[in-house]
Amino acid sequence: MRLFVAFFGLLAVALAAPPLPGLLGRPIKTDKIKMLPPDELVFGGERAYQGYFPFYVSVRLHYGNKIGSCGGSLLTPRHVLTAAHCNRNPFTQDSIVIMGLDTRKEDPYTTHGVQVRHVVSAVNHKDFNKPHTLSNDLSILTLDKPFNLTNYVQLTNIPIDDSELQKQYWATVCGFGPYKLENKTLYYSDNLLYAYIPLIDSEKCEKRWSDLDEHTQICAGMNGTGSGPGDSGGPLFMPRGGKDWQIGVVSYGSSGLVMADQADHPGVYVRASSYCPWLTEKTNGEFQCGNAN
């Protein structure tokens, strides 16, 4: 039986809760994750400060009394790329995206450099979950008004061809996912975190994920470091030519006992370059992939 977890954070909140409750930084109990020393469980690695990754988007989709917490990246000033499994249910008008945010400890509506926009619509890839669960795991969110581009808010770059980029081996992932496991409890970060992780060749990855499609998916991770619950939809990227190029979108990984061992049980990412025509179509021609070679 194939066991995996989509890296999607869904937490219940009170109906009267404000738009941005302190969701992260709270411990979540789990009795099904293998215990490893805390220093091996820094899923996010180091703290990222405001402006480090200006294309990163914090996505908060509201479903009644619940909030789905995911990551994303800015395609155009009014379009956000995230994972389709973050958008499985109809969401309410309280759903928002935030940019320029590096900590959950401050009010994003009053913090310098931070911008908040409401989500008005979303479109998942038509072949999401086809032919396999979490295949084509992409969604584009349309916003009520465009973001203003600043030093803290920038567009992502996606390559038409990522073959040369993948030869660089090391990539970066960022998000507000878990940063440690202690006493069977996953702790989520109040701060944006990032980590350098190696790409894992498709032949090795297919030993864990037999349904892997190397044309549309990428594997990455190392022991104790990688993406985790709450990081879904966030970018996997590499530097080249003075730019950060997004090669992947956080999708899923192993559940339970082996979540932390991402060397032998790597995280799976949507291969962004394979969807360039779709991204252009669904943004009405506003987004175009670029040449990273």
TrEMBL record:
Q: Which source organism does the UniProt entry give?
A: Steinernema carpocapsae
Which superkingdom? Eukaryota
Q: Which GO terms describe its biological process?
A: proteolysis
The residue ranges of the Peptidase S1 domain are 42-284
Name any one Pfam family assigned in the record. Answer: Trypsin
Tell me which UniProt keywords the record has, alphabetically: Disulfide bond, Hydrolase, Protease, Serine protease, Signal
SUPFAM superfamilies documented for this protein: Trypsin-like serine proteases
Which range is the signal sequence, renumbered to this chain?
Answer: 1-16
Organism classification, top ranks?
Eukaryota, Metazoa, Ecdysozoa, Nematoda, Chromadorea
| Protein name according to UniProt | Trypsin-like serine protein
